[in-house]
Design brief:
about 35% helix; alpha/beta; about 280 residues; Rossmann fold; Helicase, Ruva Protein, domain 3; seven-stranded mixed sheet; 10 helices; elongated; two-stranded antiparallel ribbon
Length: about 280
């Protein structure tokens, strides 16, 4: 089978399941051949050898079953950094880059602010900030040792060393520590939300997605407990569901935060809310 025929076959196999069938086919064939996508159209008559064809057919079978491209490739780009991802970690999403952008707006350049990323997963948020604010002291926490192993590998692969990794269920292992910024993309999907049974989400760790009957259990816990872990005038930044911004704002108000702000993602959906702890001076 040559490249052109292989692409046509794969695109047809995926066409009724994924709206990105052609792109998925190109990405997976490129991976099977260990070539970039432009090679596929430069050499459409090149034949796949037996090993390449077997690998490609297996990729298409798995993608057809719904397994995300990122898990098949074992990697995902975020903030121009390359991240290892496995079924132990949430796949980094483009909208989470808005959370990083907001943190960078708040963190002055050339300062040694203390920043903690709660529920770091693959380390995407923590490493993105570490890459832009090399003098900051970044902590990345997750209750999953498997996720922390992946995050540590990602730090090594991206040559970032201004970051420490801590196994912690939210603030549990951070006793007596305080930070200028606490940032998190916590679980925020309601337990019975149909989203959990759709698309790529079906294959991601439920513990990184689901949070009680309203999806707000972990967000409430973080907002409540963060008051004990923020330095004067410190900031808490959270990603949340697009319909949760009013509830999140109310939680910030209830726990007496100031300067509460919600910002939209590129699709115009309310995606992040952040607020500042009141100064005790």
């Amino acid at each position: 089978m040559n490249i052109k025929t292989a692409l046509n076959w794969a695109s047809s196999e995926l066409s009724n399941i994924h709206d990105t069938a052609q792109l998925d086919a190109e990405i997976l064939l490129s991976k099977s051949l260990n070539k970039n996508r432009s090679y596929l159209y430069t050499w459409p008559e090149k034949h796949l050898n037996t090993t390449q064809l077997k690998q490609f057919q297996e990729f298409i079978r798995k993608r057809k079953s719904g397994i995300p491209i990122a898990y098949l490739l074992g990697q995902k780009e975020f903030w121009s950094l390359n991240f290892i991802v496995t079924a132990d970690t949430l796949i980094p999403r483009p909208e989470t880059e808005h959370l990083v952008e907001q943190a960078l707006e708040l963190i002055p350049k050339q300062t040694s602010w203390k920043v903690v990323d709660l529920g770091t997963g693959s380390g995407a948020i923590a490493l993105a900030i570490a890459s832009e604010r090399c003098q900051c002291q970044i902590s990345a926490c997750d209750k999953s040792s498997a996720a922390l192993d992946i995050a540590l590998k990602n730090a090594h692969n991206n040559k970032l060393n201004n970051i420490s990794f801590i196994q912690s269920d939210w603030f549990e292992a951070l006793v007596n520590q305080q930070f200028n910024i606490i940032i998190s993309n916590p679980p925020y999907v309601a337990a019975h939300d149909p989203l959990l049974t759709q698309g790529d989400v079906r294959f991601e760790p439920v513990s990184a997605l689901q949070s009680g009957t309203t999806g707000l259990d972990d967000i409430k816990k973080i907002i409540k407990q963060a008051t004990n872990f923020l330095l004067n005038d410190g900031w808490l930044l959270l990603e949340h569901g697009f319909e949760q911004h009013q509830a999140v704002q109310e939680l910030f108000k209830h726990y007496q935060y100031q300067n509460i702000t919600t910002k939209n993602d590129l699709s115009g959906q309310a995606r992040i809310t952040f607020a500042q702890i009141a100064s005790t001076n």
